[in-house]
Amino acid sequence: MKNIICYTLLGLGLIFSSNANAQVPDKNELEAKIDALIPPQVNDTTPGLVIGIVQKGELVFSKGYGLANMAYGMPNDPNMVYNIGSVSKQFLGYAFALLHVKGDLNIDDPVNKYLEDWPEFKHTVTLRHLLSHTSGYREAYTMSNLAGRIVGVDRLSRDECLDVVRKQPELEFIPGSRYTYNSTAWVILAEILEKVTGQAADEWVETNILQALEMNDTQIESYVGEVIVNTAESYSFDKEKGFVNEKSNRAIFGAAEVSASIPDLVKWINNYRSAEIGGKAVRDLFLDPFILNDGLNSEYALGIGVGSYRGLKRYRHTGGHEAFASQLSYYPDYDLGIITISNYGGRGWLATSKIADLLLEEYIKPESDKIGQAFEISRKELEQLEGLYLASSLNRTLDLKIAKDTLTIGGRTKLIPVSKNIFRVKGGNNQIQVKKLSNGRTELSNSRNETFTKVEEWTPDKEELRSFEGDYWSDELETVYHLIVKDGNLRIKHRWIGEVSLKPISKDIFKTDWGYFVKFNRNKEGGILNLSISSGRTLNVVFNRKE
């Protein structure tokens, strides 16, 4: 299979630091090893990906695989620009660090200091909360989907995103109490930057960051249909249609909309180390992770993740838009950056961690599953832990099951026993603690203090299902859901969404194929009062039952 389309391979004298010299492959050996990691479905007739590796400020490896444009047979090229999705957030985050240090704003100020006609909730939301995904605001993309306006298909404007928060009845959680990824916050931030500087956010970032770093190929899409010069196309694959050229009907800078080349992203990564823009005070603020109210490290700073991988400190962000899937990772202690961008969605995804495993092999902590395995837990005890666990936020589940005498999440991710009540998640440092509640139920808590309670399986009969039928109205979304029973299943019927089947998971709680959770809430007499919908990014959207 031919899959090497376009590449640049430079000298690879990779010396990671003054006190750490890595034994890395020569350039031919490295190229062969990276080639072996390329997904097998990528070849010279399909879309694919581009890869860049930067070490000590130099682009030491760059290569394209597959096609950038299928209509013209144009190969992927690291010098072309690719939509980097949410990796874009860090440019706006850095802008706020610049303005904070300069004194033009304070990221600990309340949001409503900068915006007119902005709701005041019981708890204050600050700019820092927006920058760290800890605000408690609604997520506009999810809300639009719930209203039947599918993001990427239907047009979504900045004003519509802002109105989602204006219509929000209350915060989803106390600001700073939890990390919930929220792209709407970044739309709000772009609006605030414009108010503070008197200049559109994309123009300000282009002038003060991109041009200052001579990222001359990088472009920001400011309106739907804007021509992006030298850009690759993105594609998905459908069994019936074949390859589909994906397009977006959204262009709202802040959350995304940056298109960049590998060489330009190298210049950006180098700013991590040099602090060329703004100096050390700005760089340090940008990379300072938010500490949650309970003292836990959120491992997210101002638009970039600040955590670790197998014992090595790492700055990282991923992004997805249209069918582009991007990753940018930097290991500061070894001055090593790795970039991969797929224009084939998940089919062209190559985790940057796999490349890090090649280059940092001797520094990565070996994953020793022997730790904790000396503690024996009988199969009978493990069987008592099997079952479905529902998050207290009603937006996630964990399915524990035994596979080959090992307790797993979903039959795939192994849980390694550390003690009788503590398990380590294989492949990371996360732990799950088991606790027996006074009501006899089992509760799990993870390293982020999220709790999951074991739920009893529930199979409603036809009469029970019919009791949920009716019309449910949301004031926030200004839309109605019709609940019907069809073919033995409870379904949501909506004029734009169509029909969505609900699968029962516990008493009065259902899950959709979209990953949304629906809870029916009852009055004191036991009648159905309303339903609430929660997802990974949005909690407790209420639809009241109409009489």
Describe this structure as you would to a colleague.
The termini are far apart. 20% of the residues lie in helices and 29% in strands. It is globular and about 65 Å long. Mean pLDDT is 90; it is low at 1-5, 7-24 and 369-373. The relative contact order is 0.12. The chain folds into 3 domains: 1-105 and 200-366, DD-peptidase/beta-lactamase superfamily (Beta-lactamase); 379-454; 462-545, Lipocalin (Beta Barrel).
Features of the shown structure:
30 strands; alpha+beta; 547 residues; Beta-lactamase; 8-stranded antiparallel β-barrel; Lipocalin; globular; 3 domains
Instruction: Report low-confidence residues grouped into runs of 5 or more.
Output: 1-5, 7-24, 369-373
Strand order of the largest sheet: 15-16-17-18-19-20-21-22
CATH superfamily of the largest domain: DD-peptidase/beta-lactamase superfamily
Oligomeric composition of the shown chains? single chain
Using only C-alpha atoms, the radius of gyration works out to 25 Å
Give the distance, in angstroms, between the N- and C-terminal Cα atoms: 63 Å
User: What is the annotated CATH architecture of the largest domain?
Assistant: 3-Layer(aba) Sandwich
Percentage of helical residues? 10-25%
Counting structural domains, the number is 3
Percent strand equals: 25-35%
Query: What structural class do helix, strand and pairing data support?
Result: alpha+beta
Which fold does the CATH topology of the largest domain refer to? Beta-lactamase
Sum this structure up briefly.
The protein is of the alpha+beta class. The chain has three domains: 1-105 and 200-366, DD-peptidase/beta-lactamase superfamily (Beta-lactamase), CATH 3.40.710.10; 379-454; 462-545, Lipocalin (Beta Barrel). The longest helix is centred in the N-terminal third of the chain and has 14 residues, at 89-102.
